[in-house]
């Protein structure tokens, strides 16, 4: 995410001072952006990853949809 933010800053000709980048609120915003990307990727890649594991949900070790479905005992749709 850091590289994407830097590219946006560069392409839009914006300069954000270092003291603003180190602000805890900005750090939190970056963390939330990273999590959003992970969650969105896991939702969109779920079917492909499940097929790669021959439909065995328990083999999907790093997908948050599978993780929540297994951990909470809920359906894939609910996860």
Automatic annotation (TrEMBL):
Pfam entry (one): Terpene_syn_C_2
Gene3D superfamilies to which the protein is assigned, alphabetical: Farnesyl Diphosphate Synthase
Domain of life: Eukaryota
Protein name, UniProt field: Terpene synthase
Source organism of the structure: Medioppia subpectinata
